[in-house]
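Chain A, query sequence.
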Amino acid sequence: MKAVVIRKFGDPEGMEVVDLPVPVPAPGEVRITTEAIGVGGVDAVIRRGTLAAYGFQEGHLLGSEVAGRVTAVGDGVDASWMGQRVWAFTGLSGGYAEQAVASVEDVLPLPEGLSGADAVTLGGSGVVAHFALDRARLAPGETVLVRGAAGSIGITAVQLAARGGAGAVAVTTSSAERGARLRALGATHVLDRSGEGGHDALSGFDVVIDVVGGAQLPLFIDRLNANGRYVAVGVVGGQPPADFGRRLMDAFRRSLSFATFSSDTVPGSERQAVRSSQFAAAVRGDLRTVVHKVLPLDQAVPAHREMDAGTVFGRVVLTP
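Chain A, predicted structure.
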């Protein structure tokens, strides 16, 4: 089968299309013939070598979520899965391929009317957005900033915050055109990447949901209101300064909170329940998915170039 692996950490050109054996599902797993493969920010972080200390090695097969049809089941898996069209989380590897395996606990049937591209745009990111806002305890009437709002996590977080009754939903983005698109999704205030905006810019935020991280993270800690909550859900912009915690301690009297969030810490049944609800909302049109571009699997390199250039709005999807 055709697959994409990392031959050398760093630039997108370090990825290579190779032929690999078709995977055999282990007990409790299913094999899926893929129709759509999500290209996520975590894929770019792994490709750059940022997470090498966590065991990722060159030769790694990228990809964490796919949509397609179940074509084989491992021991202990109900045969009724055969032939079903599904979304699946493959872990942090195995998705950039014509065939992928996943634990049946991480597989969800797709509702009629939801495309594979929409499923991999919403499946992983929607759950992160939902539980990050829950972790932040965003209450009706409060102000929230979504930092890095042009990606699939940010786009979903904007919509959920607006639907949840936030008093204001601010976003950071890189252009007026992107700002207009985010306003159409529920944003009320558009700021540039440094957090500055026009005359209607907010002075502070009750909640910050941050997909970016990076060197500017402390600047956004400074923008929290008293009792403000900051939830970091990604580091696509790199790690923050090692001493960023000093900003929290310097603001001791304002009772600020900082948390990281990974959906790995949420029980699988809860993730699947939220995901199923969001898929249904997308079919109804109550939750919008934004697919930036659909490219063939062998175009993973240009897909990652766009990710690195910051030109993606929504999610890039690969197809075998």
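The chain has two domains: 2-110+290-319, 125-263. The longest strand covers residues 29-39.
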